[in-house]
Write a structure and sequence with these properties.
globular, alpha+beta, 2 helices, Alpha-D-Glucose-1,6-Bisphosphate, Chain A, domain 4, 146 residues, 7 strands, seven-stranded antiparallel β-sheet
Length: 146
């Protein structure tokens, strides 16, 4: 199971970033291959459940996601099931009132029956690059307002 662990410093208050990232329907705005979040439900415990559509190479994959852990303004963990099974953890640490260190960690299972070994290696590399892009898009969104 491949693991990606990336981190970035964003010049914005932690509470604003956490509020934005922790709402699943916001993620397609910063996550290029995440096509759609639908049927998002805020549960009584402050966690979410949702359905997702994701594009990997030329395939459209779908599944469900649910929050399995959350500490307000600190971290949350999402488990996804379906065409891709993954565990995604976002962690937020404030350096000061205006800077936040955001860590994005994802453990996932590549659907090997769909991919040859060579394609598997390519997909892992593509996902590493996408993780960098997700965090760069997050920084751009908060630092430039785009």
């Amino acid at each position: 199971m491949p693991t990606i662990d990336k981190e970035i410093l964003v010049n914005a208050p932690l509470e604003k970033i956490f509020s934005y990232v922790s709402k699943p329907s916001n993620l397609p705005q910063i996550w290029p291959s995440l096509i759609e979040i639908k049927n998002e439900q805020l549960l009584q415990n402050g966690r979410y459940s949702f359905e997702w559509v994701y594009k990997m190479t030329n395939l459209h994959l779908d599944g469900t996601g649910s929050y399995v852990g959350l500490a307000q303004n600190s971290w949350f963990t999402v488990k996804t099931k379906g065409a891709l099974d993954s565990t995604i953890t976002w962690t937020f640490r404030s350096n000061n009132i205006r800077q936040t260190r955001v860590t994005f960690t994802i453990d996932y299972r590549v659907p090997l029956p769909l991919l040859s070994w060579l394609a598997h290696i390519t997909v892992v590399k593509m996902n590493e690059q996408e993780a960098d892009l997700i965090l760069a898009n997050l920084r751009t969104r908060f630092e430039t307002g785009l």
